[in-house]
Records
---
Amino acid sequence: MKQAIEDFINSKRVAVVGVSRNGKKFGNMIYTELKDRGYQVFPVNPSAQQIDGETCYPDITALKDRIDAVVICVPSTQAEAVMKEAAAVGPRNVWLQQGSETPELVQLGQDLGLNMVSKRCVLMYAPPVRSFHAWHRAFARLFGQL
């Protein structure tokens, strides 16, 4: 998993699936934080044309050849379709955010040949790690989980 995390973090063009018009959702936090950390980030939500004044894309198919990685931050019932789109469109680095993953989805990602990260929060790894994510990272390192 270390290599999958490193490959994802080194990707600089990222689609975040699950960005919402409700700015309090975790997908929005990931979108904003990755942008602040220097990533070129594309919000994906089929029900919105714009989020925070930025063009919002209906799916990752609309971003073909523009992204290197995908963060999936939607319910697991929607994540399967996103993973299949990623496999079809081309970004191999997929971060299945906590709350989106199931063992079946992780297996599906592996079967599709995706470079999968799951059971971890992307904000604990995307540099620079700040705020409470830095604390979580320190504890994970302390207990050998990093």
---
Amino acid sequence: MTTTSRTGDLVNPAERIAREEYERAEKRRHELAEQRSDLNPPEVRIRTWERIHQLRMPSDPAHPILDVIAVSTRLTLEEVREEQRTRAARAGNRS
């Protein structure tokens, strides 16, 4: 069985699956590059890490995952903790 792509071309299921897998892999490569890019500020890198891993950065400044976040984002542990403090201050201002 074949299906029609957006361009109207006939695509067999195996080609469609391969294209979708390629697109997912490309998206992941792009996200990992964004997570590590020196062009992005710490806030963006950490948000990207959170999106990739579907986790929120903990508020505990001694939490062991902070080391993992720092290495993954190419930030220092102090930069990660500074983002924690910034988030805590923003959350405190909303109250």
---
Amino acid sequence: MPLIIVIIVLSALRYFEVGPFANLSWWWIVLLMVVAFLWFEFFERMLGLDRSSSHDKLEKAREERVKNTFRKDR
């Protein structure tokens, strides 16, 4: 997410030609966009970072409820 924020800030600074960013090439920003795309589409999935820990916690809680429900019925 910080990469996306950096891309947005750099794009705004370049578009409005603020300070030293006025001469910044658009290719640097495009390169950052490509890196962000590759990260979110491929590397994040390969590393297993696309699933949040809260999702894992909810899944474990659901499994426990199912186990407890079937244990009480017997």
